[in-house]
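ESCALATION

Customer reports they have been waiting on this structure for their group meeting. Please prioritize. Original submission:
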Amino acid sequence: MATLLDIIKGLNQAAANAYDGYEHMDSKVGLRREEGDPIVDSRIMDGFRVRFAADKMIISYQSEVLAKELHPRQQFENEIERRFGDIVKYLKKEYKKITQESIGLTPDGETDILVQSTSRVRTWVQAAKQYNIGGTDVPTVNEPSKDSLEAGFKKFLDLSSTKRPKNDKAKKNPDTPEG
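Update from on-call: job pushed to the front of the queue and completed.
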């Protein structure tokens, strides 16, 4: 069984192999930039990145879309979900190629989609989705911490005193208590 660090390194390398222009890429990621003819058609800017938090992988996808593609809303959301499915499928396949091991990525929660208008015709879409990485033994992040530090603070505060040190030659301030 691979450690979490090995799994993260493998997934990072799989994501790095998806950049536009990678010469050894024999399969499609499922991004919009791969559709159509790169010489004749206008290039569409889209891409994804991965980041990690404990035993979760977060995929962020961004793309430029036309405003007319946003409606109907349900159809647009399904298209974004399909993109995430294609990205995960590619990452699993590439991870297997790199490490000769399989990886389990299960969705955790809903997709966060943010649509911003850049003009009356074009919009910018940013979406993020979390996935649980299978086969890892990492404690969950949401566990409460133990109060072992509080006892140390109480012990330190109990050591305080109002007595002045022997080498203190300053005049006594009438506002300070006598010690």
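Sent to customer with the following note: The first helix runs from residue 4 to 16.
Escalation resolved.
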